[in-house]
Amino acid sequence: MYYFIVNEHGGSGKAIKTWKKVQKILDSNQIPYEKLVTTESVGASALARNVSSLDGEINLVVVGGDGTINEVLNGIGDFERVSLGVIPTGSGNDFARGMKIPRDTKKAVDLILKSGSYKQADIGKVTFDDGKSRLFGISSGMGMDAIVCKKALKSKLKNFLNRLGLGQFIYIIYTVQTLFSMKTETFKISFDGESFQDVPKLIFIAFMNLEAEGGGVKMFPGADSQNGKLSVCLASGIPKLRAFAYLPFLVAGKQEKLRGFLLRQCSEIEVSCPKGGATLHLDGEYGGEVSHLKVRVLPGKLRLIGSREEK
Fold first, then answer.
1. Which of the four, 33, 90, 116, 270, has the lowest number of CB atoms within 10 Å?
2. Within its chain, how far is the Cα of 66 from the centroid?
């Protein structure tokens, strides 16, 4: 039995077309399934929470983009019993790309139905001062990339570009705009319990579980969701014109040797933000304005169905 959580409004109308393809494959192969559709009042998190409460082993499949996958991760109540599959429909699809899930709908469904196994993948966890927490599968971050995500979520231009199949370009447009308009300040950062260090004029800090976010921008080339580590990419103290010139290197994943960039892996990182807080994103979803947080990796927490790199 497979439970499909379908965001029919995702991908600017493409999600419902994708589901019809999935449904045709399921029906033609007489696969037992139940379709669960997100609504304004019942989101993907609530649907995942309800399915997770059922008895026995559960195969839960998301038909949607990175935002819907994030909601589902935060709704799964028992990662020991729930195996997750993904049929990508979004504009960025960083989760599917990073987990080597094909964009082609038939190939993605075939992997889920025929793989017969799964892989254990890491996910990240952000904990706030009030004790509440959120999970992420791709990345979380603060600074420029988070501000870009916040702008993109409310963007009419993004919806237009999505219809043309060019949704990823909105991130490039807003990145340039944000770079020259944002105010950079000093953050305090501690890796794996080390003493806090000041990071002046922080442009962004990205906590990566996979190597790319924002529609394929390689924040940490080679980041591995099975190594039990967060891959942190940090940019600070770079004049804005030079930072603009660096953007093609960042998109290509060639930033490691550029002055002002730090790439480091860790199990946990703690960040104290300047007065007034900083914008946070989780898998491209707006996470609020925060003043202090801890981010850590949850090794092998997720059981992923239908990966090309099965164990």
1. 116
2. 6
Beta-strand relationship, 185-191 and 292-305: unpaired
pLDDT, tens digit only, all 311 positions of the chain? 999 999 877 655 677 889 999 999 999 999 999 999 998 889 999 999 999 999 999 999 999 999 999 999 999 999 999 999 999 987 778 999 999 999 999 999 999 998 777 889 999 999 999 999 999 999 999 999 899 888 877 766 666 666 656 556 677 788 899 999 999 999 999 999 999 999 999 999 999 999 999 888 899 999 999 999 999 999 999 999 999 999 999 989 999 989 999 999 999 999 999 988 999 999 999 999 999 999 999 999 999 997 654 33
Do residues 153 and 287 lie in contact, with contact meaning Cβ atoms separated by under 8 Å?
no
Q: Which of 296, 294, 291 is nearest to 187 (CA)?
A: 291
Q: Rounded to an integer, what distance in angstroms lies between the CA atom of residue 182 and that of residue 236? A: 13
Over the chain, what HEC string results? CEEEEECCCHHHHHHHHHHHHHHHHHHHCCCCEEEEECCCCCCHHHHHHHHHCCCCCEEEEEEECHHHHHHHHCCCCCCCCEEEEEEECCCCCHHHHHCCCCCCHHHHHHHHHHCCCEEEEEEEEEEECCCCEEEECCEEEEEHHHHHHHHHHCCHHHHHHHHCCCCCHHHHHHHHHHHHHCCCEEEEEEECCCCCEEEEEEEEEEEECCCEECCCEECCCCCCCCCCCEEEEEEECCCHHHHHHHHHHHHCCCCCCCCCEEEEEECEEEEECCCCCEEEEECCEEEEEECEEEEEEEEEEEEEECCCCCC
